[in-house]
Design brief:
alpha/beta; six-stranded mixed β-sheet; 38% helix
């Protein structure tokens, strides 16, 4: 097998007006058929590397460019972007920006049609890649009616249909449900019998563990490079580069025990954990959890018989009953297209019930204006481009408090706190539309956090954020919750549910199929499987080896005696 299918030598690029290089001397060599993962903090240079490999840098992005990229013996920089379409495919982190056809099947057909693929083969590819991405039956659907996760799968199917030799995936699973993410990754690894070369940017440990090699970028520089077994079993290095480590390894490292590589046998470690586990401490955790539930207040959002049917014979929600109390933190989870976003859009009047009723603080949303509702229920959209509109970050984040009549000094305090939480301090005068998607997501979150509503509704708020940013955001959300704010969170990140939620509502097919605690959910594999969810590693481990459901490495550490 040739070593020179893809070579990158001395790659440097600084965006026009940039304060530092986005890429600074990157070298890379890949075999044909490798699955190469690029990891690092937000802003480390992952997307810039992806754009360079596709030829978008330097052709479409002005700036200072140096170095070379050789694909199958030919320079990428010397070819126009359109000339590379049959050889290189890319799925953007901002996947909605690459969808433009009116129906699903037209979107998937677009690339092979433009490559001159025969009609019969195009039809086969439509069936093949819609099947692989779980979109069969969606052929005639208007692409604008799809959920965020369905749009992400469609963007992937459309690129796969071109059957490129080099497939570039920039955070391609960020909006997928856990089982869907696992399924897509398995599909990608089998493409072209494993002969398709894949370069993927990700923040996810679980995703990168499927690769053949990994690179960490830090401020455009290569910080580390190696195999998953070499790279992913070093918790400190992962955390230094904004990556969430396996919690079992965090516990092992804290006690000086051997770390577990991605493909390693952890039987000895598990036996040691089982020997040191103290059931009495687990009982203390359960008691605190019960006390927290009992201290929640009165219902603040009440949903009765909610049905939403925007078109005849197209019911998205069906007979939903739900009550959310003051000071609760409720996670709403489920497969892509289960109705999660549609449900929460009823909480602040963005949607009105076809049948049934939604009440906020006892008043029907049908009788309240959007301005009245947004003072009680703050909403962060899944797509930040549906929310932001101001010319600077400061104006965007201060807009809500200013319109609520908050004093100037307090506005400054709120903006400062919110921007610090999402790591945008110092970006006050930047144009939010010039930020990458992860940056725009942070602006949208900060703009709602600054309003300090009684109810904070977050629709996939951590998309595009690295581990440190996600933790900082969720710790702020937890602080607001502890101060009395009710939080409703839609997420596919099961570790976030396990670590932060008090209660979890599982949706499937527009209905609520389970309403329980995170511990109750992750201790019930049949419900998880039916809903397309996967248990966090610590929960799965503790269920199997301890007969108890633990939700985090911190809980496990607390339950172990000695040091």
């Amino acid at each position: 097998m040739s070593n020179d299918f893809l070579k990158v030598r001395g790659l440097r690029f600084t965006y026009r007006g940039g304060k530092r290089p986005a890429l600074d001397g990157v070298d890379l060599s890949l075999h044909r058929g490798e699955r190469f993962y690029v990891m690092g903090r937000s802003g480390a240079g992952k997307s810039s590397l992806c754009f360079s490999l596709r030829g978008l840098i330097p052709e479409c992005c002005p700036g200072e460019y140096a170095g070379e990229i050789i694909l199958d013996g030919k320079s990428v920089a010397k070819k126009r972007v359109r000339e590379l379409a049959g050889q290189i495919g890319i799925v953007f982190q901002d996947f909605e920006s690459q969808l433009f056809c009116t129906t699903v099947e037209l979107e998937v057909a677009f690339t092979p049609q433009n490559l001159g693929v025969p009609k019969e083969e195009i039809e086969k590819r439509i069936r093949r890649y819609l099947e692989l991405t779980r979109l069969r039956g969606f052929e005639k659907r208007d692409t604008t009616t799809l959920s965020g996760g369905e749009k992400q799968r469609l963007a992937l199917a459309a690129v796969l249909a071109g059957e490129p030799e080099l497939l570039i995936l920039d955070e391609v699973t960020s909006d997928l449900d856990p089982a869907g993410k696992d399924e897509v990754l398995k599909v990608v690894s089998r493409l072209k019998g494993g002969r398709q070369t894949i370069v993927a940017a990700t923040h996810a440990y679980e995703e990168a563990s499927r690769g053949t090699s990994i690179m960490f970028l830090n401020e455009g520089n290569v910080a580390a490079q190696g195999s998953p077994s070499e790279i992913l079993c070093m918790p400190r290095m992962l955390e230094e580069n904004g990556i969430r480590s396996r919690e079992i390894n965090v516990v092992a490292e804290s006690r000086g025990w051997p770390l577990v590589p991605p493909d390693g046998n952890a039987g000895g470690l598990f036996a040691e954990i089982k020997r040191r586990f103290k059931a009495s401490r687990f009982g203390e955790i359960l008691a605190r959890e019960k006390e927290r539930r009992e201290n929640c207040g009165q219902p603040i959002i009440e949903v009765e018989g909610l049905t939403f049917c925007p078109e005849r014979d197209k019911e998205i929600l069906s007979g939903v009953d739900l009550s959310i109390r003051e000071r609760e933190m409720v996670a709403i989870v489920g497969k892509n297209g289960a109705g999660k976003t549609t449900l929460i859009k009823h909480f602040n009047g963005l949607l009105s019930p076809t049948a049934g009723e939604v009440r906020v603080k006892g008043i029907s949303t049908k009788k309240s204006s959007p301005f009245e509702l947004c003072q009680t229920v703050g909403f962060v959209f899944q797509n930040p481009d549906h929310q932001i509109f101001s010319e600077t970050v400061y104006k965007e984040v201060s807009f809500g408090p200013r319109n609520f009549g908050v004093a100037d000094r307090e506005i400054e305090e709120r903006v400062s706190e919110a921007l610090a939480a999402v790591r945008l301090k110092g970006s006050e005068e930047e144009d939010p539309f010039m930020l990458p998607k992860g940056g725009r997501q942070k602006v949208a979150v900060a703009s709602v956090l600054a309003m300090r509503p009684e109810v904070l509704v977050l629709d996939e708020p951590t998309t595009g954020l690295d581990y440190d940013e996600t933790t900082a955001l969720m710790e702020l959300v937890r602080t607001l919750n502890e101060k009395g704010h009710t939080v409703v969170l839609v997420t596919h990140a099961m570790w976030v549910v396990a670590r932060y939620a008090h209660r979890v509502v599982v949706m499937d097919g527009g209905r609520i199929v389970a309403d329980t605690t995170p511990r109750g959910l992750f201790g019930n594999p049949p419900v998880l499987e039916a809903a397309g969810l996967l248990s966090p590693e610590i929960a799965a481990f503790s269920n199997s080896f301890l007969g108890k459901t633990l939700l985090s490495g911190k809980e496990l550490e607390y339950c172990l005696e000695g040091k």
